[in-house]
Design goal:
By secondary structure, this protein is mainly beta.
Length: 128
Amino acid sequence: QVQLAESGGGLVQAGGSLRLSCAASGGTFNTYAMGWFRQAPGKEREFVGCISRTAGYTYYADYADSVRGRFTISRDNAKNTVNLQMNTLKPEDTAIYYCAASKNTSWGLKRKENYDYWGQGTQVTVSS
């Protein structure tokens, strides 16, 4: 059983930056692919970015088109954390951001159904 805890959310002006972190415990972190999703009020939870697991595989990262070039996902297996650096934030980035862990190696990571564990989320609000 993996527990995930997000931090780093807050209020920022448009054009600003935030760095979200997700701390994992209770499992072998480097055997899980990790993802970030977000959910705005009245909308479905949507994919933001993912990073594959690194135990024995070359890792890769992928992003939603809406954030590619602005957001960067990284992982630190020594600290059991995954981070989401968000730059050039826009009001439409406002949402609750969730990190998630998947037992999949590198496929299907854009689909929330393929994740096994979820954090409680952290609020990101971007003012115009």
